[in-house]
Fold these 3 entries.
Entry 1:
Amino acid sequence: MLLSWLAALAPALLLGAGLIPLRAGAVALRRVAIGASIGGFVLTALVATGLVIHGRQSSFFVHLDAVSGVMFLLVAFIGLIVTAYGRRYLAGDPGQARFTRWLCLTLAAVLALTISGNLLFFALAWIGTSMGLHRLLVFYPERHGAQLAARKKFVTSRLGDAALLAALLLILGRFGTLEFGAIFAATDALRGTGEPGIAIHLAAVFIALAAVLKSAQFPMHGWLPEVMETPTPVSALLHAGIINAGGFLVVRMADLVALSAQALDLLLIIGAVTAVFGAAVMLTQTSVKVALAWSTVAQMGFMILQCGLGAFAAAMLHIVAHSIYKAHAFLSAGGIITQRRPGQERPLPVAMLIPALGASVALVLVVGAIFGMPFFEKPGVAVLGATLMMGLTPMLAAALMAREEARFVALRVGGFALGVCVAYFALQWGAEWLLASALPTETSPRGPFALVWAALTVLAFGTLLVLNVLRRSGQPGPGLQAFYVHLFNGFYVNAWCNRLVARHWPLKGGV
């Protein structure tokens, strides 16, 4: 019980900081916020240590296991960094006190979400996180771009809230409880007994819908790349923390979602489309922050894709890695004085690029099999690994073109690629070991459908890589140039959404 009380104290500290009256002044508020963030991080570290020693603890109010412990510590760490950065970033801004208040309240809601002991508290923290983020997105209400993005986010979030509440009611009706510990025990009993029932399938589908709406999945992704009118600390918190809530919901409810092939297929299809689409558009962007935002769209697609393939531990590892990377990327983006202009690169013949691409994928298949994660059993791990290794393909192709006296370069590049691949699967193995006690060991039978979609996703990224190399290193034809222009604009999906929102919710003053 002590761990539960310590865990509950962390969001309580930030909630208390956020409830301090604004008349206390910006200086006093930011000092309290920093103190609450440090205190919260120390508490989460103590809770994580206690979990390692004592194992899982579950009650009506707080549920602590490997999944919640990892997310709890991650959010506290990101929150501390963002709070400290915001103190300097907004120094002298007349709205700093207001910003600090909503930042603390939002962080409190996210921390509460990660350790909620039942689905009702989870839903309340889920909605509270969205409401707090909305106030941060319209920190400068006079900016119409901020208003438009926040309104699209608001509509999408309310749809996600409705889906989560529908799942909540179905679960309550089926199990008679909303406590996570009891839900997980009931789903474990259902596993292997045959058809779980229509209520379980519907609840899993609604959870999947809530997750994709929260995670900016295609076609409801448009608001995320447009959230650039808010202070940089908000962008870092959003892209490194809050946007992961959808994926965390699926991982948290993995025991139930794994019972429904329909829910997993929905996650798989939407995640694959979003990952390929987001990555393709990202490659065409010229603004650093906009490119980072499209990168987040693609990464969230990968995370949802992994959940759809039953790779819940891989999705959790993805959340951690992406959060740390993206927080650093956004907080350091403003320090770039001159941007590198790609220009024209050394041509890479397709005759060299394709073999290098095949070698990259083959390396993933071989190393994955050695680690006990073959493609046919762990497609969610293999898909991301293959895409990761594709990033090294141009370097491998260039090494293959080296002259005889420079063959050692090819050996060095090959050794580096092997090291990256081994490190990737070692991390995946470690994540599975760490989270094994909190995640289901098997999912509903899928047949060849999941494998086909996984293979098509790898093929799509390979095609995207070839087209991008040809565009940057050669003289693209008019067809490729036209495709590039349309891709740069995201095939105008977001423009259509903007017109729809502006028609039904006209911009008039502040939000």
Entry 2:
Amino acid sequence: MLNEAKKNIKLLLDNSGEGFLSFGSNFLIDPEYSKECLKLFDIDNLSRKNVLTVLYDSNFEIEKRILEHIFKNSDKEDVYLDLLPDEIKINNKYLKIRYKIIYLKSEKKLCVLLKILPKKNSLKKNLKLRKIIILCY
């Protein structure tokens, strides 16, 4: 019965039109993710890949520092989550990105939800980077 429920949930996630993935403090993507992620990233397998290199530009030092704060500091999780980019560009597609903190077997994880944005001319990244620089330095 449990296996059937897991299969049904995976089927729902795989057909939702959104990408779902999660990772822990080691930044490695968990083996369970939706099929949509494979389409969004144009990749065959995401399991155990570094989320920083998958989601962000090659210069991801700021995002790394924010994520480290999220995993170390539970008092200000929401503040740090707000500093992460809410839009990214992958393979010439603009994606809306949301983050949720979850706990699996008492381990803190970050769940990432991704959805293609219809038409997007530019990212709001500059404003976010200003906030990040002010808070991190």
Entry 3:
Amino acid sequence: MSAVLTTAIAPPSRDAAGSQNMLQLIQLRWIAVVGQIITIAVVEFGFGIRLPLRLMALVLATLVLLNILSLLRLRMRGSVSNAGLFLALVFDVAALTAQLYLSGGATNPFISLYLLQVTLAAILLEMRWAWGMAFITSACCLGLTLAYRPLALPDHLSDDLFRLHLQGILVCFILVATLLVVFVTRISGNLRARDAKLAALRQQAAEEDHIVRMGLLASGAAHELGTPLSTVSVILGDWQRVPALQAMPDIAQDMEDMQAAIRRCKAILTGILMSAGEARGEAPAVTTLHAFLDDLITNWRLSRPAGRLIYDSNFGEDVPIVADVALKQVIANVLDNAYEASPSHIRLTAVRNGDDLVLTVSDDGPGFVPDMLEQIGKPYQSTKGRLGGGLGLFLVVNVLRKLGGSVAARNRPEGGATVTLTLPLSGLLIEKSGSHV
């Protein structure tokens, strides 16, 4: 089975865990409403214990209204802070206190449901809010020992009150244990997802800081190398105008080749600057997707005459785009990596998948080692064994990420490797990029 790695970074929401946890509290409140209805019905009609049904129904209606308002708030404003979660738990505690006050106060075995609220607060909230919930529930428990509406028990239950209390404690324990397992597991999953997103944010910030430092290094190198390259180019231009040298065809051809090599060096420096610095290159040009890819392939073949590149375009109808020099450099980097692994066979395919441009580069080389697949997209991960290597795919991943795309790499079962670049067309189409035209 081939190993696969996909890198796609989406902007994570810092408050996503809060909104998910609020949804869990809303679900818990629905369960509380249903559970209270069942309990009231059993006590009233099963045991014959008279309860203030109207007042208890008013509390239930308040919980239902609170749930509806909470859902509307989540739709209008998805983020939920610690204060919002704390307030929701306070409302639940208030409703529980009202129901317990109307049904025996501290003598009601369901008073231990307060522990569920305290546990949720300890998991969901910061320490000060959790301690606040502990204080509120303790105060409610104390108040219910001092003031409550006593239950009027029928004569046939008065003699067996202790057994009835033990049954209530057992039911309450099973209920609390079940709810804790279900909801704490879900909430812990939400918190783990939040932590994973925060870790991804920190990793992305570190990589972007690395790119900035690479950009500064590339800028300094461009300034340092640009001057001597320009000097050599000027000298060669002067030599090319010397009649005696023009009369020597071999020397004239050598000077022309040297000029071409200098232009190539300047183009490489420009590509490094654009890849390391800006996700979108400077001075983008208006063209079409087919022309952009054809020009890229033509230039790559001219600089790699020994390479055998097969290009298949199944994109379909051509579309006008803004040509991005950084994207061209990214695709060239992937082709260069394939060329070094398998110069005799490289295939590039371009297809359209919905609103995405999908470019696939495959080769017949040795493929990626498993450790490389796990580390693709991180700097200095290379199998070439040279100092400072492994920056090509690092730049590819980060440039594609800034353009809203993704990079996937895998080993082919028949041998070789495949790198797939997925790029949203909205980042290239002219009608979506009016500021670049």
